[in-house]
Amino acid sequence: MRFNIIKEMGNSRGRVGVIETPHGNIETPAFIVVGTKATVKALTVEQVKDLGAQALLANTYHLYLQPGDDLIKKAGYIQKFSNWDIPSFTDSGGFQAFSLGIALNKKVGKVSDKIEKMDMVDIAGSETSGDLVKIDEEGITFKSIIDGSSHRFTPERSIEIQHNIGADIIFAFDECTSPHASYEYQREAMNRTHRWAKRSLEYHKSKEASKKQALFGIVQGGRHKDLREESARTIGMMDFDGFGIGGSFDKQDIYSAVGWVNDILPKGKPRHLLGIGEPADLFGGIENGIDTFDCVTPTRIARNGSLYTRDGKINITNSKYSDDFEKIDSECGCYTCSHYTRAYISHLFRAKEMLAATLSSIHNLYFIVNLVKEIRQSMLEGKFDEFKNSFLKRYTHLT
Fold first, then answer.
1. What is the pLDDT of residue 84?
2. Which of 75, 154, 227, 388 would bridge with 221, disulfide CB 3.0–4.6 Å?
């Protein structure tokens, strides 16, 4: 992997670049479409590429459980297994192993009322946690969301699974905490993340896969400036190919914590913001030095009838759209808007037709992917601030 910076914005941390991977280039800033289980729900890979996506991200936890990373490797890695012939990412699986394990125990009634009221990060270290997910120095023990069976992730195992999946860009194993966790726990989790990062890197470098897969380290530290800066210094000094900025974000943190981190991380390596993808947040991330984003939100809300427009989100299931024969967004060039009306999409949802999810997901992904492309172009033309202000004024209905 190589990262070339084409232009830096003089009045902010933002930059325009290109990430070169074995399966193609990613022009940055870019939104990376999430295909959790090696599929973008309701869409084919061809549909995802046609709407302008440059890369896809799959989830290590889910693919490990089903169909299994060994099978994916046997099939010819994720590129052959699921026809992903464009650049790909996999996350480390740590967050899902933790959060979904807790969700499973709640589902089957193994979480007491006391625990349900606790923060997730507090549960892990609680004496009352029982058979919930457990975090120790070596890794995480968790329950499968599929059948409740017990499993174990360590930094080395996470990297091994990601090697078997075969994505172009993979992530070090980390502990993602809640923004509501105590300062003391954030520091404990951050230090553990640093130790796991070193182990992830050492394991990766010892394997042949390191010659074709890039490994990103993850910065943690919650919402605390001193922890974020310490984490950025520590992870930034390690020989990673790029960096991810981990969770514990509220919206205002896009303009603070992300900036703290990117002022410290090496400038010549790409930076990925994990789990952020709302239109307004993209601007904040980009002007604070983020190169790539991933988020499930565009497709998740699409499947529930919430659609992006230049004038803000709409709920297409509302009755007022049942006889609205305009397209979802008057300025949108996606397949859905080129062929179907609001009334038809509304009908599909009310009739509970599967096509509703497909057409809505195409629209929302096109909107986000191409919004970031528009932002990139505005940066190249020196018009970022003008474009940001114009878009957000209309999208958020500011006066």
1. 95
2. 227
- Do 6 and 45 share a domain, yes or no? yes
Model-wide pTM > 0.85? yes
Set 69, 91, 253, 281: catalytic member: 91
Tell me: the pLDDT tens digits for 127-180? 323 456 888 999 999 888 888 889 999 999 999 999 999 999 999 999 888 777
> Residue 381 sits in which domain range?
307-395
* From 241, 281, 294, 329, the catalytic residue: 294
The beta-carbon contacts of 19-24 under 8 Å, at least 24 apart in sequence, are 19/87, 19/169, 19/242, 19/270, 19/291, 19/292, 21/55, 21/87, 21/168, 21/169, 21/214, 22/168, 22/212, 23/79, 23/84, 23/85, 23/86, 23/87, 23/88, 23/168, 24/54, 24/55, 24/86, 24/87
**Residue that is last in its domain, among 295, 319, 348:** 295
Q: Do 278 and 313 belong to one domain? A: no
Judge residue 11's burial from the number of C-beta atoms within 10 Å of its C-beta, 0-12 exposed, 13-18 middle, 19 or more buried: exposed
Asked if residue 147 is part of any domain, the answer here is no
Angle at 5 between CA 4 and CA 9, to 5 degrees: 170
91 is a catalytic site residue? yes
Position 19 scores a pLDDT of 98
In 3D space, the residue among 54, 42, 13, 46 whose CA is nearest the CA of residue 293 turns out to be 54
Q: Which residues pair with 17 in a beta bridge?
A: 5, 28
**Same domain, yes or no: 288 and 370:** no
